[in-house]
Amino acid sequence: MSVQNIHDLSERLAAFARARDWEQFHSPKNLAMALAGETGELLEHFQWLSEAQSSSLDAEKKEAVALELADILIYLLRLGERLDVDILDAAYRKMALNESRYPADKVRGDARRAEEYD
Amino acid sequence: MSVQNIHDLSERLAAFARARDWEQFHSPKNLAMALAGETGELLEHFQWLSEAQSSSLDAEKKEAVALELADILIYLLRLGERLDVDILDAAYRKMALNESRYPADKVRGDARRAEEYD
Amino acid sequence: MSVQNIHDLSERLAAFARARDWEQFHSPKNLAMALAGETGELLEHFQWLSEAQSSSLDAEKKEAVALELADILIYLLRLGERLDVDILDAAYRKMALNESRYPADKVRGDARRAEEYD
Amino acid sequence: MSVQNIHDLSERLAAFARARDWEQFHSPKNLAMALAGETGELLEHFQWLSEAQSSSLDAEKKEAVALELADILIYLLRLGERLDVDILDAAYRKMALNESRYPADKVRGDARRAEEYD
């Protein structure tokens, strides 16, 4: 088995879809909806938990959540592949942007959104 | 600069949060909400487009979408870090599960959900 | 039975929650998550359908979707009650705002978002 | 002005869309995405707040949240109109279903989902 990395995974997911003739359903629009559907399932795991409870899941719940996170990653990678976007590279670029938008000295301990700073 | 991969990115994101004393806000519950908020922004890019239009974005729109996908990956990795879940490994496990749930011969060209099959 | 209207329904929903000692879980934060979870379920019904198919659901699917819409309305009304917001009144105000932001003569046949107009 | 109620509002929203030739964009699929996009905006207001903070919004934030709830109701009613579903009636039916699924004596103070009860 090849090394696990998101480029390898993305290729396997594309092959999985092609083998099932599912690429016809995998428009970016549809994949964005599927991603959001999985995100909704993630929320359902946490909606009635306190923040503290959400940090100390039991093993069964943790595995269920792990598989939801997996589903989100899967659709995210499918979207990147269909749009020809390198999401990992975009995330590094976005992180650099966040570094400049939220200087540590200015925002320490404050979670307000960027547009709320003057 | 180190090689780009999601484990490196995840560590950088954790360091970014620690430097801003933002880990207090990063409970799994809150991060799941933030992930869903970004997913909502993604949907807004596609909601009035046809499926065909969603497959042929112009360069400006494509970059805007890329940064939304980046935000989703960022929160997804933060969630994995806070929950001590290896999302990439979970995605490989989930893909193996999908291989057995959706045999290519049975589901070719059919997008119904697994529970709708007998 | 009293006349069906959203104020009556909202009161019944509050009584339902009180009788189960569930108001402790019904913070606005949690209810927003529950609302989003139900919205995710709604998306799952439509994600692989074409727009045309989404307009001609069979009776079984239509009823399933109707109950998802019901769940969304239920959490929406719970949120309004907990926040002391009259959502119906807010919707009339928002519609008046939309009338002025999107003059029919200017936007006819064009679905771009308001901020994209000059 | 006529009495405020959701049937009147729904008719006004349909007229608003027709006057702008926007019904071409208002497939149920697209409206479900728009509803989910607005739900994402709602989450963003609450994601970094504690549950207690979410219950005591200041006036400015409360009005911003009220307008998000309004947007959600607007798209919900559009969906009901396009699908020919009476959402208010469906909500009463769903509430009756919830009454039988969650007897007060059995679930008092317990927020687990129905399928987790035996």
Topology:
The structure is a homotetramer of 118-residue chains.
Chain A: H1 6-19, H2 28-46, H3 51-54, H4 59-83, H5 87-101, H6 104-107
Distance between the first and last residues' Cα of chain A: 52 Å
Shape of chain A: globular
What percent of residues of chain A are in strands?
A: under 5%
Name the helicity range of chain A: 55-70%
Q: Main β-sheet of chain A: number of strands, strand sense, barrel status?
A: none
Oligomer: homotetramer
Please describe what this structure looks like.
The structure is a homotetramer of 118-residue chains. Chain A has helices at 6-19, 28-46, 51-54, 59-83, 87-101, 104-107. The first copy, chain A, is an all-alpha fold. In chain A, α1 (6-19) crosses α4 and α2 (28-46) packs antiparallel against α4 (59-83). The mean pLDDT of chain A is 93. At the B-C interface, α2 of B face α2 of C.
